[in-house]
Amino acid sequence: MIVVEKLEKTYPDLQRGAVCAVGGISFVASAGQVFGLLGPNGAGKTTVLRMLSTMLKPTGGTATVAGYDVETQAEDVRRQIGFVSANTANYDRMSAFEMVEFFGQLHGLSKDELTERSEVVFAQLQMNDFRDTTCGKMSTGMKQKVSIARAIIHDPPVLIFDEATVGLDVLVGRSLQNTVLQFKDQGKCIIYSTHHMHEAERVCDHLAIMYNGDILAEGSQRELCEQHGQHSLEELFFALIDQHDDQEGSDGLVAEGVIAAEQQL
Amino acid sequence: MNWTNVKRIFNREMRDQLRDRRTLFTTLILPLMMYPILGLLMLQVAQFVSETASKVQVIGADSIGELPELFVDNKFSSNHAPAEGKLLDLEFAPGNEQSTAELVYEHAKDLVDADEFDAVVVFPADLQAYILALRNEVVTVRENDISAVEDVEQVGGALKSDGAVLPQGPQIVFNSVDDKSRIARKRIANVLESWQTSIKQTLFQAGNIPLKIADPIAIVDRDTAPEESRTAALWASIIPMLLLIWTLSGAFYPAVDLCAGEKERGTLETLLCGPAKRIEIVAGKLLTIMTFSFFTSFFNLVSIAFTGVFMIGRMMPEGSPLHEQLGSVPGWSILWSLVVLVPLVAMFSALALSAATFARSSKEGQYYMMPLLILCLPLMMISMIPSVELNLGTSLIPVAGAALLLRNLIESQFSVAIRFAFPVVASSMFCCYLALRWATAQFNSESVLFRESEKWDFKLWLLQLLKTPRAAPTAGMAICFAIFVLILRFFANFLAPEATNWQGFLLNNSVALILTVGVPAILAAVFLTTNLWDTFNIRRVSFPVLVIALLLPFSLQPIISWFGVVIAEIYPISPSMLAGLEGLEKMFDAAPWWWMLLAIAAVPAVFEELAFRGFMLSGLRSETKDWTAIFITAAFFGITHGILQQSLNAGMIGVLLGYVAVRTNSIIPTMIIHFMHNGLVVVLSKFSASQEWLQTLQVEYAEIGTIYSPLVTVVATVVTLALLFTLHRLTVAQPSLTDTA
What we know:
The complex is a heterodimer.
Chain A: E1 2-13, E2 17-29, E3 34-38, H1 45-52, E4 60-65, E5 68-69, H2 74-80, E6 81-85, H3 96-106, H4 111-124, H5 140-152, E7 158-162, H6 170-185, E8 189-194, H7 197-203, E9 206-211, E10 214-219, H8 221-228, H9 233-248, H10 251-264
Parallel strand pairs in A: 3-8, 3-9, 6-7, 7-8
Antiparallel strand pairs in A: 1-2, 1-4, 4-5, 9-10
Chain B: H1 3-18, H2 21-51, E1 54-59, E2 71-72, E3 75-76, H3 82-86, E4 88-93, H4 101-113, E5 119-122, H5 127-143, H6 152-161, E6 171-173, H7 179-206, H8 227-265, H9 267-272, H10 278-315, H11 321-326, H12 333-358, H13 362-380, H14 392-395, H15 400-410, H16 414-444, H17 446-449, H18 458-467, H19 475-495, H20 502-528, H21 532-536, H22 543-570, H23 575-589, H24 593-621, H25 626-639, H26 644-664, H27 668-687, H28 692-695, E7 698-701, E8 705-708, H29 710-730
Helix pairs in contact in B: 1-10, 2-10, 5-6, 5-7, 8-10, 8-12, 8-13, 8-15, 10-12, 12-13, 12-15, 12-16, 15-16, 19-20, 19-24, 20-24, 22-26, 22-27, 22-29, 24-25, 24-27, 25-26, 26-27
């Protein structure tokens, strides 16, 4: 469903010169799978997901989503995905229904299709109680539900969640994870980015651990732990970072990197 | 582009904005409320000022008892300006014959400064004696039968010869900075003028001379302007500026909310990951901004009309100056202004959209409003300058042309408006197109859309710039460099000593050019880039290209001279500038040709090419399309030439030089063309008069002088096109370097 090959993103920065955000990563995610991107802040997860959702153009490599190339068939790609992130907010002056209706219309749903899909989505996400409430007056959990409803109104085969639980309380976060698992059961291909270990352990059945724009390891949680002789995802994560920094030969930066990663995780 | 998506985005944005109280307040409520409130305040102030009596002290009134009656019951006589007289509360003080005029003035000044009185009128003690002496003299003249007195001055002259001195007064002591005092002065002056007419009358009667001799001719005004144009004159100068300011403001507030605001709130990313194309999003947002901008102007117009007709027109007394100037709002002609506004609405909306997209937050977006307004304000205010008229030259100036067209429409001068409507709309549409291109580019730029609002660290940025220089400059460096050069050139114009001979002029010019254009380019290249050859675009070129570069200036001469004629027709050279140019020409007569060739051809060819087709063009090409880079470089190249006519000419040549530089990937051919072109101007100015064969190619054109004949120009155009076509076939433009070192 998603095929990424040697995907790269470098951008010029006035203060830092040329910055390599993603350094030639490759992975494949299939239908009915939750593919987790696990890594600290600044690892390049959001950049990868923005490239997959065609908001950013890759500077190297290729990526296809549901068979469409992200660079040359951007519009087709956007019709196949639903994108939910901590950065994608709702319009404060629109109600939940207006929000979902607007995106449904943009996706070309007819009036009947829209009515039918809205009923399904609002029921599935238990949103009928605040259907006509404006987003500005909603709680964080309600807003996140509206975001998900907006992303799935056209029933896309691919869903992308970029740190979607940031800022949510435990209950709402748990509810979101359950929703993601429901989507997985519906056969959708899901990319789920997070920097919470326990979340990745619960939701993802395939993981790619990202650090400094590279994928350090990829596989199921059990495979990865066995392969690297670690007992938990957390231990595995720090072991991989240590190993990476040792290989880079930046002794002084190892401690800094780990401390920074610890602070961010 | 899917117009259904554009409509959906437009509908959503409109609904969103209509629910935003701040936007509604700025675009609808504020314009509708502002003018009536301002009108009410104005009326209150006007009524207060006009109806409040002025407090006046009169000194020395007792000394004018024998003159025509001025005071009745401690007030000014109702015979003299009855309206003003009622509004002057008088307090009398006796004059002191022993006191000097200066002491009396000091006393009156103290009274006015202490705000005890709004004004003080001082009648000099000798005024009555003077007038009576004057009357006696007139009587004497009459009795001596000197009937040929034609000039009253002669009588005065006779008196003066007898030792009588014209008294200093009556004096009105007032404070011109104080409004109340100024109004009091005006009222007193009106009364005294009426009194003076009475005195004049008694003198003329005494001399048996008809009063009409004092005013032997009557100047009669016959205004050809239609009634509605006359009453609309003040509105016509104010409304264009107000409308344009509100068009920009009406565009800016929704733009900031729809772009910077959405970026800040995170909803822009939500929209970007949706199925709509970027161009559809831009179009939807632009249409929303245009709608708000247009209706803001419309509501302003409605509010102005309401204020004018109902408040000032009906509440102010008829015949009052305010009623005459503002009481009659121009009729249906004002609605035409809404049609003219459409391209301007589009232009301002696109500009606002670009600026607001570039901003990282609403707050940053608001900061961009003021510079944009300040840049446009001088152009908007042009309608308030009475001497500036709508003609071909002014109609082509963006914003200013539209302001003048609006003025003409409101004044019902339709014949002039129709004649220049097309250039105004064309110029506005062209600017709108450029602004729209910029807005679309902003929306396609990842660095703009996903700019993080991290704090900009100047030290870190500078270190990065100097420590890790690039092979060639960036577009940002190129623009900063061009602005820096403009600032330097501006100050150099004021700092350079005035030349009195040709040596001084040529030296000043060359030194200024090297210091303000050449040296900054070289320093920027050395410190900011690693490869000087690539930065300055210095590469070897083939022999045929060199031959073309040598031939092009010859074929360009007639075309450029005709272009100069067109420019002079549109923007005539002012008489003062012509006089200056003549002086310069005379100065150059004494200069040796090789000196002029060095200063006017060689120095600009080397240093201007290094700076513009070298550093600047390389930088711009690294991040923009070739033609965009060529036009921006040519625009800055033109502006550095200072004088408008010269700038337009230089701008056109700049486009050609830029094209040659891009095609040949080198500034060597452009240096040759630049040198040859300037050199030809020098050589022809020196030797053309003595060359008869050259004069056969030329014709006289009005006051501009000799230019090439149309036949020669047509042949030259064909040759130029052939040379450029050959150059195009011989060369391949190479992409500019963008890699870091």
